[in-house]
From TrEMBL, chains A, B:
Pfam families: MarR_2, ROK
InterPro entries reported for this sequence: ATPase_NBD, HTH_MarR-typ, ROK, WH-like_DNA-bd_sf, WH_DNA-bd_sf
Domain named HTH marR-type: residues: 18-60
Highest taxon above the source species: Bacteria
Protein name (Swiss-Prot/TrEMBL): ROK family transcriptional regulator
Length: 387, 387
């Protein structure tokens, strides 16, 4: 290893340390940063200067000419330079969202459309148009696109969406069908929504995020990190067995949670064809709709009992369609959890509705890029210098 | 931070790096170690010398007077100094095991006895006697006791065994009832057995270890590390719901796996009172015994289906009483997994019997101390110098 490489790697590490401190604990003065990081004040000043020049940090307070770099001035994350793009293909809509480095939403758009039984190429072409809108707007705001992540409802591995039964897709390299100025990463919607909830939601560091859609997925966050399993396929809550002799499931099994509490099962039990109709029925106290939710809630409670026993959960966040349905689901879910877990745990897990609702997945998708830049800012300094 | 502290912490880190390389990749020469670690040859020589003096490393090949420290000689982990003590309270026996730093078993003892409905004090007094035997033997071999870990069948947190229904114990600080020359750490048997399997068993780095006893626990290993959940209560496979309207479980729920495949349920279905009798029946082809295993295997298959969906498992190891019963369980477990997971995963998970059988928990318990010494050897150098 040459001296030059050693120096670069130390500098990259120090840039990360300084940016990380500001991200977690900012605003901070250069002096406070030196104290927190153990780096010398002159090293901190140089690093902060470079990060300010690159548009990753900004000085707060009135900046006057010739006073740049005053040691008593606070520095904060800057939203001026980095753009991250979150994309989502949902059964009912397409969505895009642009975040800056501070996590502020700079652009968001959503197109309602029915993607059931659709052709991947057609859907991705529409998403491409939406993404181009977002990128154009980002450019207009002076932002540099640092990366993009696409959320899809189904298990993902090595860039392949293995199956999205709600869309009728199988083995689709969905991200590869987009032509964007940065590579697009593909991941599971429930995992990304869980990260959205972690970074921009309730502030819990240990929870299971449940995504109720046609399928039911889940994203597990442990100590502030996503647990996705060795192949990224963890969290298939929809195929946890509720009753082994229950209704046939399209997975080939029977009695899976999805056959009781998936969107189609719920709507069938509620004798409606849309979630909006079901919600309207619930609002006016329709007994069929209420019974459908109570039954789905009991099945969800059984599956979540198994999940709590296996995963040691203290907090469960209900997302997707379970967020608007929460007032009519919560009691039966919580009732089952309390009855079944009372003898095993000091307290049954806390149940809440997602605060982000349908925004969770694109927030998590774009947030992943933000967190990647924060964890390794060096490449973005190089690009700023080259530009 | 003073210079002296900085120096000590760098030295501690370097000792760990050198010991870790030898542990993973030894035997190694000092030159190879310098290459692997990026440390200078003189630093490596000093560190290796100190580790050899402390009895943590040894030189291989014929050692001749005056030739100590020859640069071309291989160094390996030494079994001469460190002893780690693994202890286990099982429903049917007490066990102790002494490992040295190389993982070699230097002493093991087991006392068969029925601990059902026992008083903790009485059981711990017997374990104390067994532990003293182990420590005396360790001393006779010239070993220093570095630590001790006690495995118990039930959920553990903050040194408390919350409940061990097979023993009839509740909220017992079991390790505190032992008086040993080192502090004793308490942990769950299934978690420790999973670590035993990881370190001294099949060599897999991702698997679920299932411990079949009166209760059914599980230990999840992901990428070579135990996943115990935020409170250490993960892996309660015995209370995963197999059928919500199934038999009442002592946890207050119903239809938990334990009510179908726990030792008591198995023996009742097999119309025997001991596992030995059940095995004898299976050996002679007794239909009642065969049916009992097939039914337990199907329930285990359903619960493991839920576990695979939630945890993304490629490998399941059956331990505890499921190890000797494996030949009569495997087919029905694997059949359910294949039928229910075929549509969701490229291949159903591989099912194997534990290679360690009843030794897994004490191996994991003692192994945890070994791995702690390998990860932070500095305190053991200080003690050797003081002695």
């Amino acid at each position: 290893m040459t001296q030059a490489v050693r120096h670069d790697s130390m500098r990259a590490r120090n840039l990360e340390v300084v940016l990380g401190e500001v991200s977690r604990n900012g605003p901070l003065t250069r002096a406070a940063l030196a104290e927190l990081t153990g780096l010398t004040k002159s090293t901190v000043s140089k690093l902060v200067g470079d990060l300010v020049d690159a548009g990753l940090l900004a000085e707060t307070g009135p900046a006057r000419a010739g006073e740049r770099g005053r040691p008593g001035v606070d520095v904060v994350l800057s939203g001026a330079r980095i753009a991250s793009l979150g994309l989502e293909i949902n059964v009912d809509y397409l969505a895009v969202r642009v975040l800056d480095l501070t996590g502020a939403v700079r652009f968001a758009a959503r197109r309602d459309r029915d993607n059931r039984g659709s052709r991947p190429k057609k859907v991705l072409a529409e998403l491409q148009a939406l993404a181009e809108e977002a990128i154009t707007e980002g450019r207009r705001l002076g932002l540099d696109l640092a990366g993009a992540v696409l959320a899809v409802s189904g298990p993902v591995g090595d860039g392949v969406l293995f199956s999205a039964p709600n869309l009728g897709w199988q083995d689709v390299r969905a991200a590869d069908l987009l032509r964007l100025p940065v590579p697009v990463e593909l991941d599971n919607e429930a995992n990304l929504a869980a990260l959205g909830e972690l970074w921009y939601g309730g502030g819990e560091r240990d929870f299971l995020y449940v995504s109720g859609e046609v399928g039911i997925g889940a994203g597990l966050v442990v100590n502030g990190e996503l647990f996705a399993g060795p192949r990224g396929l963890a969290g298939e809550l929809g195929h946890v067995v509720v009753a082994p002799d229950g209704p046939a499931c399209r997975c080939g099994g029977s009695g899976c949670l999805e056959t009781y509490a998936g969107q189609e099962a719920l709507l069938a039990a509620g004798r409606t064809s849309t979630v909006a109709d079901l919600l309207a029925g619930l609002d006016r106290g329709d007994q069929v709709a209420l019974d459908a939710c109570a039954a789905a809630g009991r099945a969800l409670g059984v599956a979540l009992t198994s999940a709590v026993n296996l995963l040691d959960l203290d907090h469960i966040v209900l997302g997707g369609v379970f967020t608007p349905l929460y007032p009519w689901l919560a009691e039966s879910v919580a009732g089952v959890l309390a009855a079944r877990l009372g003898g095993l745990r000091a307290a049954p897990p806390v149940l809440t509705a997602s605060r982000l609702g349908g925004d969770a997945a694109t927030l998590g998708a774009a947030g992943r890029v933000v967190h990647r830049v924060l964890a390794d800012p060096a490449p973005f300094l190089v690009r700023a210098q080259e530009a």
